[in-house]
Amino acid sequence: MDVLSLSRLQFAVTAAFHFIFPALSIGIAWLNVIFLGKYLKSGSREDESLADFWINLFIITFVAGVATGIVMVFQFGTNWNDYSRYVGDIFGAPLAAEAILAFFLEATFIGVLVWGKKRVSKGFYFFSSIMVACGATLSAFWIIAANSWQQTPAGYTLTSGRPILTDFMAALFNPSTLPRYFHTVDACLIAGALFVLGLSAWYLLRNDTLHRVFALKSIKIALITLLLASLAQVGLGHWHAVQVANTQPAKLAAFEGLFESEAGAPLLLFGIPDESNAQVKHFIGIPKLLSLVVYGDANATVSGLNEFPRSEWPPVSLSFYPFHIMVILGGYFLLLSLAGIILLYSKRGQFSKWFLKLSLYSIPLGVIAAELGWMCAEVGRQPWVVYGLLRTDQAVSYNVPAVQVLLSILIFVVLFTLLFCAFVYLVKKKLVQGPVSTDGEIIDSNEGVA
Length: 450
Known about the structure:
By secondary structure, the chain is mainly α. About 70% of the residues lie in helices and about 10% in strands.
């Protein structure tokens, strides 16, 4: 493999692994706000231990995210030096803002959550959880805003072949920033809710009477969050799709396997794209629905890949399949949450074993859906690293030998494997231990302290 392919692979590996932890931590952070809010209202030891338990798991996730995120920064200078020079005038501002305005906010109040519980009032402790959640969510905004500028550049002029920032707000709130931001944050809420739901279901599957009430309280909040976030994703996904249709039509065409421009374009339900022959085999679709969904007009023309030079086509299969699997998972999350809510309220928390097993096995699916969404965004904009301005093959550091890039990939894979094993070990250790009181005693939700 050449330097370009290896550098792409390295960035994909490091970004995909890092994204596991922000996706979980943002969702868990907001759930912690709800858990601590319950404790602030009730003052019960059970609600206190419930909040402490999930805060501890959030901290484990946050630390893993910080460790993996460091690698991302260094890659810009080592593997993508031409890219760094090209976008430095624009890309640097949101990244600096993320560190100063978001990460430090989150890190400061995480210190309160870790060490300040017995040193501050309950109200300030609760306020700290809000600041942590806001910091994590604000951090995502700056990162997504910077990435969105690469998708839909705005607020710049070209000077000596380089984009120079002329309007910070236009660059920050470029056409894709807000649709992508809310779509991503909502996906993080889904991932966090599935994490809490699945781990709580584990206690019920074990017939763990000691932690039954704790698990049921966690499941209730996770299910309501999952249902609301899954419903919201329907509208947010539509908003984002309309934005893509208007600003990155080649990406939308790749998502839908649409090779020929078509008035009254159908919405694909099933098909196998054949990029070499520019067709979709075994096509099944709903007539005119794609035109109606993205343009509000059943007879509107949707641009196909034939409108663009073949050299500017995104990799069709790597855009098509992640997009459709992501959509299917979104439907699954909605059905799972609806089934859980029905069981919760109709059977008073007597969950069927099949539902508990589904919940447990669904823990990674929220993160997988978020990763697939990232693949859609990044692969779908190829061959551009900055859409319409800089191609990916013009951005790589060709002075770095391919063997060095390959060696770094292997080192990262080993380190990430060890880190992930450590993460799983710590989560499992905390899960087996269960919730404890402020005195370190295991909480028996039915009888008090055991």
